[in-house]
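Lesson 9: reading folded outputs for more than one chain in a single document. The general rule is that every protein is listed as its sequence immediately followed by its structure tokens, and records are never interleaved. Here is the first one.
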Amino acid sequence: MSLKSHEARPAAIPEVGAAHSETSREASPSRPLNRTERAVWLGLLSTHMRLLRTLDQELVAAERLPMSSFEVLLTLAEAPGGHLRMKDIASSLLISRSGLTRIVDDLERQGFVERRKCSSDARGFDAVLTDAGTKAYRRGRKVHLTHLRREFLDKLTPEQLTAMAEIWETAGFDEHANDC
């Protein structure tokens, strides 16, 4: 989907700062985006895309570890005992099971992850973080955090960070969004 596909016709765009009542929002949920809404939406998309691209490039350059692989290692590093069901990893990262299988295959070849039969369900498999995977995660984490801070977090004031965290909570995209 193109970023421009959400562009509204100029005549339908109210001036920046134009008031919107809750009633008008409820009455016409498919109305065109105004300038502020469009700026918020496109800013979110372009910032996310740019940041992921930068983080991926830096992780690959420093550790030969794509962002998708780092996310799997991060998920396992944060999991109790360093292991999770494959389907749970796929769900938490919002990727297909086949996409996760490809990533885990690569991590397994590198010795960062092992697959083990799930103890609670013989049909399922757990991905288990190895010692080498823990070391790779820790190295990748330094690169990830350095560039995440430089490219995004350090550009915001503490007040802006607090406001943004509150916005994500209000919108339903906070750290607990995966608890659903």
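And here is the second record, again sequence then tokens.
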Amino acid sequence: MLPGTVTPQQYAGGHAGGFERLDLARGQVTAHENRHRHEDSVCCPSGKAVTVWRVGDETP
């Protein structure tokens, strides 16, 4: 398996927050992110996002 980097998504309404957690499972990585608007304090994100990446060989 090749090494890689997971970075937060760009958020048009503010700035990228950070990862709340990353879940690693065979064949996928699930990122749970906090989303902050410009006026949000660090403690209180306006929203959350979940992104799933599929990794590895899809061949049976």
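What the second record shows: The chain has a mean pLDDT of 77.
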